[in-house]
Write a structure and sequence with these properties.
Methylamine Dehydrogenase, Chain H, mainly beta
Length: about 475
């Protein structure tokens, strides 16, 4: 197994380039990254989206990469340079108009996108102009796929149906019903004769593409099925699930032939390499893993944390990544190679948060042991232990390195000659944090969050607090300045 590390949030999608030499990954961290398949090295980081990137697709000639995002846009990138070449806008500007999926037609002339706005849209891949709007689904459209001959487009929806559309006219030609819950993913077999669909009903179903009849129902996963992919020869199907496994199925028999285990959280995406020899999977455990498709074996394994990872932070120059864990350690990783370079030990309880100083010379970590520790980022040595007598859940350095902004207030960092410590009573206004079941301002409870709105991570821009939830939902809270 190869384990590609670099994203600072969950990985939502992966796609191989047509020649199999590159892998693209899309993440909640708002980036798309390109990786060298042979070495596992990150070669490009594509930035531009302002929200989670949900889906990616290479053009058939491999020259372009398309990405779909919760920022309601589709973007086209030059795969060689990593430069953004087009920004496609048109999906509804309502709150629920995030773009979930994207697919190129086999000839590369058209691009299709699917959205929470219940529509599928066709775009001219050369000009970026919208050419068709397909309506019919009664809920969010989660996945799309062109048939190999490009004549049909299939779409999957939370309305529990799969629909076939005439790619030339945009007319709906079939409605496939059978799933008892949301349909998350679809894939045509290489010969175009079958379509596979994956659902929250924990099944994968095979459909006859000509008649729309269900021909097989594959059962085995113990949780939602999030993704499906046919091998290039069409003999195998891979499925990825919330049960943390990838499973390989014999397409003819409908039998499970392998169960790939290794991910520590739900698996969201799976794809075969163009030669069919490797399989790549992406997971909420923030990793991309490579598997031998013939044996199901992991090809390489990089080990680090022994428990949940609670927080990550890039150094200002982007060369290092710090991670904080329930295993009571902070670890430094080389962002280019994914290798662990330092293990910082000292905390005696879960580590909740990490933050680099603006100059990148220090790292601060906060723990359930009621301490904040400052580390020398170059050596990994602990340089200060601050004891605020309270558990701090989130922290960040302002422009200077003499204090820390935390969810409990402003923490003054004493000079080296002093051992005194205090949470400043006079705090600048509007220091907003997510703290358990509350959004706080200046250390005071401001807004109580019901259970479904409590998050595990957050980001603040101005007075807009964005909260990420384990369910995959991202919530936006706009707070007035005082």
């Amino acid at each position: 197994m190869k384990k590609l590390e670099g994203h600072s949030e969950s990985v939502n999608a992966v796609a191989f380039s047509p020649d199999g030499k590159q892998l693209a990954s899309a993440s909640y961290d708002r980036t798309v990254r390109l990786w060298d398949v042979a070495t596992g090295e990150q070669v490009k980081k594509l930035e531009g989206h302002s929200d989670s990137v949900n889906a990616i697709a290479f053009s058939p000639d491999g020259k372009q990469l398309a990405s779909a995002s919760w920022d309601r846009t589709v973007r086209l990138w030059d795969a060689a340079t990593g430069e953004q070449v087009k920004r496609l806008e048109g999906h509804s500007h309502s709150v629920n108009a995030e773009v979930n999926a994207v697919a190129f037609s086999p000839d590369g002339k058209q691009l299709a996108s699917a959205s929470y706005d219940r529509t599928v849209r066709f775009w001219d891949a050369v000009t970026g102009e919208q050419v068709k709007k397909l309506e019919g689904h009664s809920d969010s459209v989660n996945a799309i796929a062109f048939s190999p001959d490009g004549k049909q487009l299939a779409s999957a929806s939370w309305d529990r149906t799969v629909r076939f559309w005439d790619a030339a006219t945009g007319e709906q030609v079939k409605k496939l019903e059978g799933h008892s819950h949301y349909v998350n993913a679809i894939a045509f077999s290489p010969d175009g004769k079958q379509l596979a669909s994956a659902s929250w009903d924990r099944t994968v179903r095979f459909w006859d593409a000509a008649t729309g009849e269900q021909v097989k129902k594959l059962e085995g996963h113990s949780d939602y099925v999030n993704a499906v992919a046919f091998s290039p020869d069409g003999k195998q199907l891979a499925s990825a699930s919330g049960d943390r496994t990838v499973r390989l199925w014999d397409v003819t028999a409908g039998e499970q032939v392998k169960k790939l285990e290794g991910h520590s959280h739900l698996v969201n995406a799976v794809v075969f390499s163009p030669d069919g020899k490797q399989l790549a999977s992406a997971s909420y455990d923030r990793t991309v893993r490579f598997w031998d498709a013939a044996t199901g074996e992991q090809v390489k394994k990089l080990e680090g944390h022994r428990h949940y990872v609670n927080a990550v932070a890039f150094s200002p120059d982007g060369k290092q990544l710090a991670s904080a864990s329930y295993d009571r350690t902070v670890r430094f990783w080389d962002a280019a190679t994914g290798e662990q370079v330092k293990k910082l030990e000292g905390h005696i309880h879960y580590v909740n948060a990490v933050a680099f100083s603006s100059d990148g010379k220090q790292l601060a970590s906060a723990s359930w042991d009621s301490t904040v520790r400052l580390w020398d980022a170059a050596t990994g040595e602990q340089v200060k232990k601050l004891e605020p007598q309270t558990i701090i859940s989130s922290l960040r350095f302002p422009s200077d390195s003499e204090r820390l902004e935390t969810d409990r207030g402003i923490l003054a960092i004493p000079p080296s000659s002093s051992s005194s410590l205090r949470l400043l009573s006079q705090k600048p206004s509007d220091h907003i944090f997510l703290s358990g079941e509350w959004i706080t301002r200046d250390g005071q409870n401001l807004l109580w969050l019901p259970h479904d709105y409590r998050g595990g991570c957050s980001a603040l821009r101005g007075n807009l607090l964005v909260v990420g939830h384990a369910s995959g939902v991202v919530s936006f809270f706009g707070l007035r300045s005082r």
